[in-house]
């Protein structure tokens, strides 16, 4: 599993979120302000299977358009487990290997 932590401008937040949701991804938006973009921005949290991370990043890039003046950043973090509390489902815990 991967957690995509994506910071985009407020102008990009809706097109990016709409593109991800249309493709079947679950997205949580958090309003944020920080020194990175030096203005109001939105932080998106997206939990994805490993093989879907690149697809989500591609959707984000396309949804933001070609306006190079608006910046953004994406962090891709490996996570051990994701639990959907609304459904009670969980990804299996990782296996540990003894060496």
CATH class: Alpha Beta
Q: Report the sheet-strand fraction.
A: 35-45%
Radius of gyration: 15 Å
Our count of helices gives 2
- Going by helix content, strand content and strand pairing, the class is alpha+beta
Q: Order of strands across the biggest sheet?
A: 2-3-1-4
Q: Give the number of domains.
A: 1
Helix content: 25-40%
> How many DSSP E strands?
6
Can you characterise this structure?
Strand 2 and strand 3 form a beta hairpin. The protein has a single domain (2-81), classed as Alpha-Beta Plaits (2-Layer Sandwich), CATH 3.30.70. It has a four-stranded antiparallel sheet, with helices on one face. Strands 5-6 form a two-stranded antiparallel ribbon. The chain has helices spanning 10-22, 53-64, and strands at 2-9, 27-34, 39-48, 73-78, 83-84, 89-90. It contains two helices and six strands, in the order E-H-E-E-H-E-E-E. It has 99 residues and is an alpha+beta fold. The model has no long low-confidence stretch (mean pLDDT 84).
In a few lines, what is going on in this structure?
With 99 residues, the protein is an alpha+beta fold.
How is the secondary structure organized here?
Elements: E1 2-9, H1 10-22, E2 27-34, E3 39-48, H2 53-64, E4 73-78, E5 83-84, E6 89-90
Antiparallel strand pairs: 1-3, 1-4, 2-3, 5-6
Based on the model shown, name its key terms.
2 helices, 6 strands, Alpha-Beta Plaits, 99 residues, alpha+beta
């Amino acid at each position: 599993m991967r957690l995509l932590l994506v910071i985009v401008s407020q102008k990009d937040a809706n097109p990016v979120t709409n593109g991800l949701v249309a493709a079947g991804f679950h997205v949580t938006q958090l309003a944020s302000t920080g020194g990175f973009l030096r203005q109001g921005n939105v932080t998106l949290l997206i939990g994805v299977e490993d093989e879907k991370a690149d697809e989500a990043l591609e959707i984000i890039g396309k949804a933001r358009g070609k306006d190079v003046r608006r910046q953004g950043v994406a962090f891709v973090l490996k996570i051990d487990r994701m639990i959907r509390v609304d459904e009670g489902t969980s990804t299996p815990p990782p296996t540990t290997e003894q060496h």
